[in-house]
Amino acid sequence: MISRFTRTFIFSCVCLLLIGTVFFLNPPIHLQWDADNNEWFNTDGVPHVPVDVDRHIASGHVIMGKLGNETAKAALGRATWKLLHTMTLRFPEHPTEDEREALRSYIHLTSRLYPCGECAEEFQTLLKAHPPQTSSRKTASQWLCYVHNLVNKRLRKDQFDCTKLDDTYDCGCGDDPSEKKGEHLIKGG
Ligand SMILES: Cc1cc2nc3c(=O)[nH]c(=O)nc-3n(C[C@H](O)[C@H](O)[C@H](O)COP(=O)(O)OP(=O)(O)OC[C@H]3O[C@@H](n4cnc5c(N)ncnc54)[C@H](O)[C@@H]3O)c2cc1C
């Protein structure tokens, strides 16, 4: 007959062995910041790539609550549409996969973090039916115009003529020909 003490001892050993095995198979990742390359590295020197973080974060729930103030809601809407339309109209003509993913994620994150919660809920539903189109500047800007018109329709506002996008959103902020794309930003100038 095994005594109660022995049984407890064996049970504890088995538990410790199991925990040790799990820890051994999935050691905690220690990250180090490489200031020269602006990159996180694992302690084994491999660049740290946050797998699936974008997909996970971008598809989450709406974060903000209801925005009761109609004046604030309208002002926020106008400012946000201005930002989004200007963004898609300055998006690259031939974006890389990384640039496309950045825009997709931005739109999806906007649908989570938009400060008017009830608008964000509606926007998420809209995005499920009409996912962001990011293959080119033209595609992205026309997609956004179409989506904005769907919101207009729901709110019983006039439809916008999407052939007039370029005239309406000519911000006078074309690329500076003397600068290579993004170079001045990297230099911090
Ligand atoms: C993602 C999102 C979701 C929203 N959801 C809601 C909601 O659920 N309920 C709510 O009350 N408000 C919502 N709003 C706010 C709403 O869309 C308006 O911004 C707000 O009511 C102010 O309307 P507005 O008449 O000034 O014109 P806005 O719709 O804000 O448009 C601003 C200007 O953009 C131009 N424009 C209009 N349509 C288009 C288009 N299709 N493409 C390009 N340019 C265009 C016009 O020049 C217009 O004057 C939302 C805003 C956003 C950004």
UniProtKB/TrEMBL annotation:
Enzyme Commission number(s) of this protein: 1.8.3.2
Q: Which domain of life is it from?
A: Eukaryota
Gene Ontology cellular-component terms listed: mitochondrion
List required co-factors.
FAD
Any one GO molecular function term: flavin adenine dinucleotide binding
Which keywords belong to this entry? Disulfide bond, FAD, Flavoprotein, Oxidoreductase
Q: Work out whether the entry's keyword set contains DNA-binding.
A: no
Q: Which residues form the ERV/ALR sulfhydryl oxidase domain?
A: 69-169
Q: Which reaction does it catalyse?
A: 2 R'C(R)SH + O2 = R'C(R)S-S(R)CR' + H2O2
Name the PANTHER family on file: ALR/ERV, FAD-LINKED SULFHYDRYL OXIDASE ERV2
Protein name as it appears in the record: Sulfhydryl oxidase
Source organism of this protein record? Serendipita vermifera MAFF 305830
Q: What is the lineage of its organism?
A: Eukaryota, Fungi, Dikarya, Basidiomycota, Agaricomycotina
